[in-house]
Structures are given as structure tokens and as C-alpha cells.
Amino acid sequence: MRYLLDEMLSDRTAQTMSVFAAPDEFVYLLEVIDRKPDGRTVDDPDIPAICKARGFQTLVTVNVKDFGARKHIYQAVIDAGINVLVLRTKKGQATTIPWQAGLLTRHYPAYSRLFNTATEATLGSLSDGGVRRVTLSEIMAEIEADEAGKRSLP
Amino acid sequence: MAGRRLIPLADGIYTVSEVCRILGPRVTPRRVHYWLDTGLISGEPVSRGAKGTPTLLTFRQLLEIRTVQHLRDELRVTLPRVREAYGWILHHVFDQGVAVAFERGVGGDIIASTRDGDSTVIPHGQGAFPHDLDTDELTHDLAVARQAWLERKYRISDNVVADTRVLAGSPTVEGTRIETALIASFAVEGQYDDGVVSSIEETYPHLNTEAIVDALEFEGIRRAA
Lengths: 154, 225
Fold this sequence. Notes:
The complex is a heterodimer of chains A (about 150) and B (about 220). Chain A contains six helices and six strands.
């Protein structure tokens, strides 16, 4: 299984994971792309093609705040036969390198098993509590609930 | 999730609160809903936000709201009087993608026209338009909105953009897939200091300090005193 870390993770996380898992099992997005002429890195519609062309079976991404837009990105990736692993923060949790690497190392056996045994492209939600297989609707409802909770804080 | 229509990838999608955050404090949720409900802003929202689900708007609707707000600020007239003219402007800029210029007409009205001679009048009605109204400024601002529509990218600040091709139009550091919301997660109690900036730089070494601070400030995070 090869994992592509989206740009919102860190190249240092990919380095940590390469020591922890097999070399080249986790690769940072910016290591496999050329910037576009106007300096942009990667557009949403490019992601599935990059995964396919470079032999990644799973996209690892982070979602801290969203109300549904990301659903379309995940859908496109899954439709292309690529798994998606979404890292979910706790309230007030900074998405630092230790947090990213900690989650990915601690739950490595669980999400590896989830994706290796799946018979079709799968969406996984990874948080401190572990990995869960979820539907697009479930993860979006989860994120919306989290956001609503944050908004209602005094 | 029922009731939402699917939008193509790279079209952009926004909550009303996100629209207000991107466009600044003069745009309020109440005003956005009023403009949507009365049909001033074109098209149906992606989602109407029934029962706890948010109303979701498209990138075009975001730009239309920006345009109407700016016209409202500059012209300082009530909506019913200018609704038809605003509709004409939005249609030409966002449906036809053509440039629209403003000038003062005889009698004090404002005339909006396209290069091929199509035009509409924004009537001044009972009172005159503000004395200091700068029609060149109106023309320039509309050109900015048109350019954003053509490029599908709205510049929020020097380093922060809403690019519909990147993370469905969420505010990001320009040229990257790094959301301002993600950068804001590093702040401590709504503030940042050099340590916070260093931590972000360590995580994302390809971001410069200026871009990081820009993203934090956009998220309402202020430098600790």
C-alpha cells in the first residue's frame, strides 16, 4: 500500500513515516509534482490522476473545517479507485508534525488493515480514537457537527 | 445531506458565514439571505440550509454578493430603486463575461454600459448620488470582480485567495493547498507569537513568514501583545 500525503500535511511527516514504515510507502505530494506555470501546486481535479499515475492507493488528507465542499473531492478520488484517509482534529488541536506523525504511526496497523482488506475504494476517518470506515455523508455530518459545536462555544 | 445538488469539482462552494468572512464585515448573513430570498443574487444556492444544514453558495454567488455590496456602499441607494439595473450589471458581468463601465449621465443618473453599446441607467430618484461618487472606482471594482470570475479565483489579501480549483475554493495561501483554517489551528487562544509562526514554518517550510501572518490575520488571529 502506498500513501500520498496531501500538501496540507508536512514533508517531515512523510520522512517520519518512511522510517517507521517502508521507504516510499508515504510520500509528500510536493515531491511528486511539478508546479504549474503560474506557481500553483495541485488542483483538486488533478489529485486522482496523480495517485493513479504514481501508483498511490491511498490519499491522506486533513479536514479541519468544511461544510460539504470536500465531499466532492473525496468522491472524485474514490470514484477513481483510490482510498481516502481523512485526519480529524480535536477541538483546539493544532495540526503540527508531531500530531500528524503520531496519528499515522499509532494507528498504522488499523488503517493498513482497513485498506488492505477492503474490496473497493474506501473512505477512512482517523482521529485519536482510531480509524473508522465511513461514508461520505457520515464524515460530512461529523464535520458539520464539530463545526456547529465550535460555533456554539461562548 | 439530502437536498444538496452536486457541483462539479473546481466550482467552489461556500457557507453564508464563509462568504461574510471572505468579503469582510460589511457583508452580513442577514443581508446575504435577503438578497438570496428576493432573487437579487442569481441561481439557487447549492443547499437551502433547512433544519440545521447550512445554506451553501457558489463562487459566482459570492462574487455577485461582493458586487452588490460594493455598489450599495458607493451609491447609497435603496435596493428597490436599483434592482433592475443591478440585475442588468450582474447578467452582463457574470453571464456574458463582458466589461461594464460607469459614468455620470445628464441629470445625475449613473449609466452603466458595455463596450458594444448596451447600457442601463441607475436612476438617482428623489435624492442625488453622493457628491464624491467616483465612477472610475466603480468601473475598476467591477473589473476586479469580472477578473475574479474569469480566473475563478478571488484575491482576499496579498497572500490569501479563494481559488475554486483548490480545496473547492476554501481560503488558502496562494499557490498552495494549505488552508488558512489549518494555519489558524496553530494559534493559542486566538493569538499568535513568534513561536506559533516558527511551528507553522517548520510544518510548511515552503511558506514564507509574510504569507503565514497574512493567513493568521485573515482568520482573525492577532499577534499577542
